[in-house]
Amino acid sequence: MEINWIVIGVAVILVVLLIVLTIKKNQKEKKKLTDLLNNDFKKAEKDDLDADDSANEK
Q: I need a labelling partner for 34 at 20 to 30 A (CA). Which of 5, 8, 18, 26 fits?
């Protein structure tokens, strides 16, 4: 029984390529998520209440 090195080589190259592409995509998604979480905070509400407006009760 002879080992078909060409088929094994192609399979190994495809697996390595798949791993590299997955890592690159994961890094891009990680950067997007980090940017989103860093910039997705709620602005503080203004505490300026109008004394004449009773609807501004908290």
A: 18
